[in-house]
Amino acid sequence: LAIRLAGCYIVSTAISLKHFLQLYKAADAKHQQYGPQPKTIDVDHDQWSTYITFQMNLDKLDKETLQFLKYCAFIHHNRIPAMMFEHA
After folding, report:
1. Which domain holds residue 28?
2. What is the C-alpha radius of gyration for the chain, rounded to an integer number of angstroms?
3. 43-66 pLDDT per residue, tens
4. Which residue in 61, 46, 44, 45 sits closest to 8, CA to CA?
5. Model-level pTM?
6. In total, how many domains does the chain have?
7. Rounded CA separation 42/51 (Å)
8. DSSP line for the chain
């Protein structure tokens, strides 16, 4: 999953793999300092890298899109009409 998220980030931002790795290391350092600590909670490296790449993708979204995703998080997936995505 982390590789897919990284690929989506690279394609959507049109950056090189080298630049992505620099951004990933910076995001990792930031979240090590301010986010959940992988050494203090039961998180393996794969889960942590997925968390970082997912957060990097979320950070690229605008406020309205993030708000829309928050609303969707509270709705059962069977109750989300496709029309919501067409007009989002």
Report:
1. 2-86
2. 15
3. 677 788 888 899 999 999 999 989
4. 61
5. 0.68
6. 1
7. 13
8. -HHHHHHHHHHHHT--HHHHHHHHHHHHHHHHHHS--TTTTT--HHHHHHHHHHHHHHHTS-HHHHHHHHHHHTS-GGG--HHHHHT-
